[in-house]
Design a protein that fits this description.
The protein is of the alpha/beta class. The chain has helices at about 15-20, 25-30, 45-55, 75, 90-95, 95-105, 115, 120-125, 130-140, 160-170, 180-195; strands at about 5-15, 30-35, 60-65, 80-85, 110, 145-150, 170-175. The strands form 2 sheets. A 4-stranded parallel β-sheet has the order 2-1-3-4, with helices on both faces. The longest helix has 14 residues, at about 180-195. It holds the Pfam family DUF1638.
């Protein structure tokens, strides 16, 4: 008797929810996306716990669309039924290794669409940078400029970016990224998950 095919889950940070939905059936056909709240990035132990919970069921394959965002990510990716896309974080996944590391060396701080919409929650709530002078000092000491990674699914949020510029007293550059690298990483990860490479 033929065994039923294993279900494949693409488990992703919600920072890529719209982007993964935009990839369409050519990439995502036959797999089920599962999204975990991007705020778990601020609490790596909770992200660890959520991913470990999903990993317990060995009767399905998982592709993790994450960077190295929690303590057990490397261990999870070595399990026989789990694969992970390449990249140390979401910006690396979108931009590619060389472009990401070059921009990091230049001191760029990145904003992705989902976190741009939640920037006050991230900086004021999660990072505790409620005081504008302290937030500016933090950003100016650590970074040379700000960059919004425009995945092309919606018009860049110019009003929100203007608020970010005013809060940090730094201009925000808009860099179009498209979805090609994310698409390629997920397609390659699914091939590895299904044992084709």
């Amino acid at each position: 008797m033929r065994m039923p095919a294993k279900e494949t889950l693409v488990v992703s940070c919600s920072i890529f929810r719209k982007e993964i939905a935009g990839l369409g059936p050519a990439v995502m056909g036959g797999v089920r996306p599962v999204f975990l709240d991007s705020m778990l990035h601020m609490r790596p132990a909770l992200l660890d716990e959520a991913l470990l919970g999903l990993a317990r069921a060995e009767d399905r394959r998982l592709l993790l669309v994450y960077g190295d965002c929690c303590p057990h990510m490397g261990e999870l990716a070595r399990r026989p039924h789990i694969r992970k896309v390449r990249g140390v974080n979401c910006c690396d996944i979108l931009l590619g290794h060389d472009a990401y590391h070059r921009l990091r060396r230049e001191g760029v701080f990145f904003f992705l669409p989902e976190w741009t919409a939640r920037w006050e929650q991230v900086f004021r709530g999660e990072l505790g940078l409620k005081d504008q002078p302290l937030a500016r000092e933090f950003m100016h000491e650590m970074h040379t400029r700000l960059m919004y990674l425009d995945t092309g699914l919606a018009e860049a949020p110019h009003r929100t970016l203007a608020d970010i510029e005013a809060f940090f007293d730094m201009p925000v550059e808009i860099r179009p990224t498209g979805l090609e690298r994310l698409k390629a990483e997920i397609a390659a990860g699914l091939q590895r998950a299904h044992g084709h490479v």
